[in-house]
Predict the 3D structure of the following.
Amino acid sequence: MRFLPLVFVALAAAAFFVFPYDLAFLTRILIMIVLVLSVDLILGYAGVPTLGQAAMYGAGAYAAGLFAIHVWADPVAGLIIGGLAGAALAFVSGLIVMRTHGLTAIMLTIAVAQICLEIANRARDITGGAEGLRGIRMEPVLGLFAFDFIGQTGYWYALIVVCVVFAALAVIGRAPFGMSLRGIHESRDRMLAIGAPVYWRLVLAYTLGGAVAGIGGALAAQITQLVSLETLSFTLSAEALIMLILGGTGRLYGAVIGTVLFMTVHHLAAANDPFNWLFVIGGMVLAMVFFLPSGLISLGHALKGGRK
Amino acid sequence: MDLFLNILVDGVAYGMILFMIAVGLSVTMGLMRVVNLAHGGFALIGGTLAHWAAQDLGLGYWAGLAVALAGTMAIALPLERVIYRRIYGFGELQQVLATIGLTFLMIATVNLWQGSALLTIGLPEGLNRVVDLGFRTLPAHRLAVIAAGALVALGLWALLDKTRFGIRLRAAVDNRDIASSLGIDTGLIYMATFALGAGLAALGGVLGAELLPIDAYYPLRYMVLFLIVVAVGGMGSIAGSFAAALGLGLLETAARYLAPDLATLTFLGLVTLLLVIRPNGLLGRV
């Protein structure tokens, strides 16, 4: 298991050479992985279900896009701005969401994302409304690597961001903070009993997740040079959640596998049959739940004959 | 005055539609502890069947409605037996995944059968006119919807409060294990309740087609709206669903009439506020 992340990086590097004409799609997968990883921090580590992660993703995307247009078009600075925007929104909404649980918490995360969507839609002068935010022109990454037409720089840039985010989340997961989140996940009451500030830990986890999602949004804005209202949509939040559960929660690489599987199947099915691809997605999702309830990361376990 | 009456009639009609669709969702979520994201799919199935019977077969509105109700319940029963019965035992996340997978399949099926265009259900003569109340006129359709909603609410109240089935159902919602250890056949209750909820969703879908237009992506588009009604009303509470549906229906309609630009924001803002103040919903159990 220790070398698994290296295998992923090797596969991602190989994909660059094997599918040179699909770089745009591969880059979209990488960006999505960042978003799904942020959901894994909140849901997989801390056990808080969210259907509104697109709020932070979109906030990061708009913040990075506006920053690039009006202030400074440096990509790394843009990522930081995007992360800060996501974190700020997550902190403010987390103060409310973490007071509740279950269905109410889920509904609040959805409501926050819908409110952001409506604001972005109304503030046409700033965000471009339904037309999307256009005119983002990024400077070269670190002043060295210019974004090219084919998307080669974009791909490596996104891959490096994914690796950094993955490593950071892995470290957080092993740190005392990550352990206390898992503790809260397992038993909120016991954590309270041993004196852990459960509410603030959850708010902090939500804020960190928001920062990661914001970075993902910023990445999308910089690479696609466009921010549309879809970055804030309920569909995006729901798809991120589906991908995570498909892959398996709580262990980061489930987020990676789930995203790759879902987006590849989605891409192929939609290309083969633009009208009936939803059958394939629905069938895949149902089959997964019934045969591999703990997600793809439990596949090895299931094959060895031990079903849980 | 006219404006006020318009808001009242449209808002209550809209609220009744929300109630009919969401009440089944609320009860199944309270009873079976299933996060059933596919519930809007039953309204879609009802609407599609009604469209098919009324337009394609030319049977007319009322026959279409009957086909929709019978057909949806006939689909819901085996679905409960074969799929949902297994889903009850899953964890919350797996339930989300399974029911959203089902939703996708429902959408894909309707899409394959009827295409992705709007599925209209032409109103019959009787509903497509205005009723003259003497001092002003109102669309008959809205009044019919309000009457149907009130009947459904009354019927549900009678069913739950006055019948043996209602007693058993309430017992099962309160505590499934104890209810079943007292000899109540909870499996049968689940199935009947599920089919009833699906039937009501179909009814709401068909009657509400003027307000919430039906096409293949209906379940995804309105999923959040129905869940909001359940969350605001309190899971498993029928009176709560009724109050929440009417309140939210009036609220959204009023916002649309009075401040169209800010309607969605006002609606979402107030819903958020309500959920913060009452996390278990208006009438939810703690």
